[in-house]
């Protein structure tokens, strides 16, 4: 089934004559415009534009298609405008991408009080950056910056990756091993403990281990659980080790339910960024979300 947005994008290209002009008028990225056009061309089975320099010249079949869809699209847009005017209050909807644990720890508690509609998306950071660039997402929370000229990144906080354990872990024994400053002894002691990991993302453990011991861990965690918040809850049982971002377990450490075991020889820190398109219709809503994150993360 054809996507109506493909026709809307086709009309914008036809009217503006360029991919950039269409992107500006629709408030989406140029790659998103290109994706819509290529999808529509694949669907109808023929080229709709000839590309001459930066100009998009409609083909004969492109002209026929425009004549067929232009008036229905205009009527549909008029209906949409009239519906919005007749509604007492139009509520915008924004889509935000972040990791599951970040959502649970920060934004989840505020969702019911938001003055707009919200769609939360979870996924890998490269995928979220791509969806932001294509206009599928409006805002992402990420420790990684993309390279698209359509996206701006704003640093707002940082996370430190730390080694934590249950309250019954023998930290006195570990401190004695640390005093030796012998990396092999420290590594061996840690490997003999029970470890927690997640099904999807082991990057924190890999980065932490490589920074402190010069190589990736040569063992697999004993317990694989769905996500980092699950690890924190499991550690409250008293035993086990895990490498996690500090903000996920701050309260548990303060309450004594979980122990900070080791920050490492060198601190492993990630900068957290807001990522959004430079042109958006939802700046007010995005600023509201940003304000909640700054409130939660102390900056």
From TrEMBL:
<dbReference type="InterPro" id="IPR036388">
    <property type="entry name" value="WH-like_DNA-bd_sf"/>
</dbReference>
<dbReference type="Pfam" id="PF00126">
    <property type="entry name" value="HTH_1"/>
</dbReference>
<keyword id="KW-0238">DNA-binding</keyword>
<protein>
    <submittedName>
        <fullName>LysR family transcriptional regulator</fullName>
    </submittedName>
</protein>
<feature type="domain" description="HTH lysR-type">
    <location>
        <begin position="2"/>
        <end position="59"/>
    </location>
</feature>
<dbReference type="InterPro" id="IPR036390">
    <property type="entry name" value="WH_DNA-bd_sf"/>
</dbReference>
<dbReference type="GO" id="GO:0000976">
    <property type="term" value="F:transcription cis-regulatory region binding"/>
</dbReference>
<dbReference type="InterPro" id="IPR000847">
    <property type="entry name" value="LysR_HTH_N"/>
</dbReference>
<keyword id="KW-0804">Transcription</keyword>
<comment type="similarity">
    <text>Belongs to the LysR transcriptional regulatory family.</text>
</comment>
<dbReference type="Pfam" id="PF03466">
    <property type="entry name" value="LysR_substrate"/>
</dbReference>
<dbReference type="GO" id="GO:0003700">
    <property type="term" value="F:DNA-binding transcription factor activity"/>
</dbReference>
<dbReference type="InterPro" id="IPR005119">
    <property type="entry name" value="LysR_subst-bd"/>
</dbReference>
<keyword id="KW-0805">Transcription regulation</keyword>
């Amino acid at each position: 089934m054809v996507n109506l947005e493909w026709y809307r994008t086709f009309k914008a290209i036809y009217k503006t004559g360029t991919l950039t002009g269409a992107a500006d008028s629709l408030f989406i990225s140029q790659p998103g415009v290109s994706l819509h056009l290529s999808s529509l061309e694949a669907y109808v089975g023929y080229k709709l534009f000839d590309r001459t320099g930066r100009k998009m010249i409609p083909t004969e079949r492109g002209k026929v298609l425009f004549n067929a869809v232009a008036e229905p699209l205009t009527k549909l847009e008029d209906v949409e405008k009239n519906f919005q005017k007749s509604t007492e209050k139009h509520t915008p909807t924004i889509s935000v991408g972040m990791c599951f644990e970040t959502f649970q720890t920060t934004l989840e508690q505020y969702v019911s009080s938001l003055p707009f509609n919200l769609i939360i998306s979870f996924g890998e950071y490269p995928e979220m950056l791509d969806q932001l660039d294509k206009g599928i997402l409006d805002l992402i929370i990420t420790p990684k910056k993309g390279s698209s000229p359509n996206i701006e990144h704003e640093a707002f906080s940082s996370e430190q990756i730390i080694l934590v354990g249950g309250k019954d872990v023998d930290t006195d024994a570990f401190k004695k091993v640390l005093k030796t400053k012998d990396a092999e002894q420290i590594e061996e002691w840690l490997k003999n403990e029970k470890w927690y990991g997640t099904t999807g993302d082991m990057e924190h453990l890999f980065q932490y281990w490589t920074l402190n011991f010069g190589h990736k861990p040569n063992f697999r965690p004993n317990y694989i659980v769905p996500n980092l918040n699950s690890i924190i809850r499991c550690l409250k049982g008293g035993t086990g080790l895990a490498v996690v971002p500090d903000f996920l377990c701050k309260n548990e450490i303060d309450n004594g339910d979980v122990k900070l075991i080791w920050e490492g020889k060198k601190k492993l820190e990630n900068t957290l960024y807001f990522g959004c398109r430079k042109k958006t219709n939802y700046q007010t809503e995005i600023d509201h979300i940003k304000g909640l994150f700054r409130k939660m993360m102390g900056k």
